[in-house]
Amino acid sequence: MIIERTHIVTLARGWLGTPYHHRASVRQAGCDCIGLVRGLWRELYGSEPPDIGPYTGEWAEATSNEALLLGTRQHLREIPRATAQPGDVLIFRLRQNAVAKHAGMLTEGHRMIHAQEGVPVSEVHLGSWWQRHIAGAFVLPGVAD
Question: Which of 59, 75, 77, 105 is buried most, with the most CB atoms less than 10 Å from its CB?
Answer without folding.
Answer: 105
